[in-house]
Design brief:
Blueprint: E1 3-12, H1 17-39, H2 45-52, H3 59-76, E2 88-90, E3 96-99, E4 107-114, E5 117-125, H4 130-137, E6 142-151, E7 154-164, E8 177-183, E9 189-194, E10 200-205, H5 207-229, H6 233-263, E11 268-273, H7 275-281, H8 284-292, H9 297-310, E12 315-318, E13 334-338, E14 341-344, E15 353-355, H10 356-369, H11 389-393, H12 403-406, H13 408-411, E16 413-414
Parallel strand pairs: 8-11, 11-12
Antiparallel strand pairs: 1-5, 1-7, 2-6, 3-4, 4-5, 5-16, 6-7, 8-9, 9-10, 13-14, 14-15
Helix pairs in contact: 1-2, 1-3, 2-3, 4-9, 5-6, 6-9
The chain binds zinc ion.
Zinc ion binds at residues 327, 329-330, 332, 344, 346, 349, 351.
Length: 419
């Protein structure tokens, strides 16, 4: 299976004074070690090791230097002096990702400091790389070398990652069978497509999984609120983490089955609603409450994307406007007498009542057919300095405590020795 490698961009969010100092220490020690090994003209790993072993650096940084300096000194680098803005490199496994959807800042990254210590720091991920980050977090992509650097007072971590991506078959848009993917409340995910004669077939709903996720979320809210009232912040956090792991397991199960569904269809294309478009065109809080219900929407999307890519199945997004309001048979707007029921208002339409999520999924699939789709990847990167993770993926549930950041003693913990 073909492998693809990409550099994932993480921006560290406001490290406090203590952590900022630790980052600067790491950078200083790294640059001094690099300079010393360069001056000593170390052309082998062992020669480099003899120099860098003295420095207060993690094994991950030392190992990176052992790989890097011999390349520098073996003639491939013709400068007499090093630039002073070399990024700090870490070998693979030095860096770790953690995801806490319950926090306003969802992603955390573990950065090696020196041998026994590392720092956990909240980070923004590039929204266009969310599928990659999700794959790394799930262990379905492999991390390679990382580079830590600072520009204009902001710290960044660039992480190389490799994953398997199957080549997509060359089929024109009209040869493909669009499979509408609706993510909602009654059913966590609903998929449906039309057969050759145009009839909607094989609707599949993950309603029980939706129930399971709702139950876990409810447990999370009531339990953590109670624990927080008692002042048991730490217990609340680990309890919340455990519940989110369970939700993530449900997500992985469902997204795997969505991709399996697509694999069973000839020339499939998975069609999702474009979340960016929704956010730009709707009142955010209304949308969040009504449709997202605080679920890990972007997490589901990212998992579907990377798992589909592993199987060579294309994923497209469409304008979601009115996909839940319109009737898939006649196009007129209807209404929902109950959450799971769509009723068409057109007296001449054969549809009287229809499963609402299936109706939405067919509309999403049809929108691809009508040519409104566009590739997510064709769009320019949208990450801006002020970008907000919670707005990016709608998975911010409480917007409350940033517990990783508050739990200072947990951030500087004993780590593993890499060397
Ligand atoms: Zn109708």
């Amino acid at each position: 299976m073909p492998e693809v490698t990409k550099t994932l961009e993480l921006r560290l969010v406001n490290p406090n004074a203590h952590k900022e100092r630790k980052l600067c220490e790491t950078r200083e020690a790294y640059q001094q070690a690099l300079q010393a090994a360069f001056d000593a003209d170390c052309t082998s790993q062992s020669a480099t090791n003899d120099v860098v072993v003295e420095y207060d650096l993690s094994g991950y940084a030392k190992n990176a230097l052992k790989q890097y300096v011999p390349q520098l000194c073996s003639g491939s680098y013709d400068a007499d002096e090093l630039h002073d803005d070399h990024p700090v490199k870490f070998t693979n496994e030095g860096v770790q990702l953690d995801h806490k959807p319950q926090n306003a800042l969802e992603w955390y990254v573990k950065i090696p400091h020196h041998d026994d210590y590392h720092l956990w720091i909240p980070a923004h991920v590039n929204p266009d790389q969310r599928d990659w980050v999700e794959a790394v977090y799930a262990g379905d992509a492999v991390m390679g070398e990382s580079r830590l650097f600072e520009r204009d007072g902001t710290w960044y971590l660039h992480v190389t990652a490799t994953r398997d991506v199957e080549e997509q078959p060359v089929a024109s848009a009209n040869e493909r069978t669009p499979i509408g993917v609706d993510i909602g409340e009654a059913s966590l995910v609903t998929v449906c497509h039309r057969d050759e004669s145009g009839s909607p077939v094989r609707p599949k709903l993950w309603a029980d999984n939706g129930k399971a996720v709702r139950r876990l979320r409810k447990t999370y809210f009531t339990a953590t609120r109670r624990l927080q009232k008692r002042g048991s912040e730490r217990i609340a956090e680990s309890y919340g983490d455990a519940l989110w792991d369970q939700i993530d397991d449900v997500f992985h199960c469902v997204t795997r089955e969505v991709v399996e569904y697509a694999e069973s269809v000839d020339n499939p294309v998975l069609v999702l609603e474009d979340l960016t478009y929704i956010r730009e065109n709707m009142d955010y809080s209304v949308y969040m409450n009504r449709r997202l219900h605080g679920w890990g929407f972007a997490k589901l999307y990212a998992q579907i994307r990377y798992k589909a890519a592993e199987k060579g199945i294309p994923v497209e997004t469409v304008n979601p406007q009115n996909t839940s309001k319109a009737c898939h048979a006649c196009g007129e707007h209807g209404y929902r007498p109950r959450q799971a029921t769509f009723r068409c208002s057109n007296d001449d339409c054969w549809v009287t009542e229809y499963q609402a999520d299936v109706n939405g999924a067919i509309n999403i699939a049809d929108r691809y057919r009508s040519g409104e789709s566009h590739r997510q990847n064709d769009r320019a990167p949208r990450q801006k300095a002020g970008d907000d993770d919670s707005a990016t993926d709608g998975a911010s549930l409480t917007g409350s405590q940033d517990s990783h950041a508050d739990a200072e003693p947990q951030q500087v913990t004993h780590g593993t020795n890499a060397s």
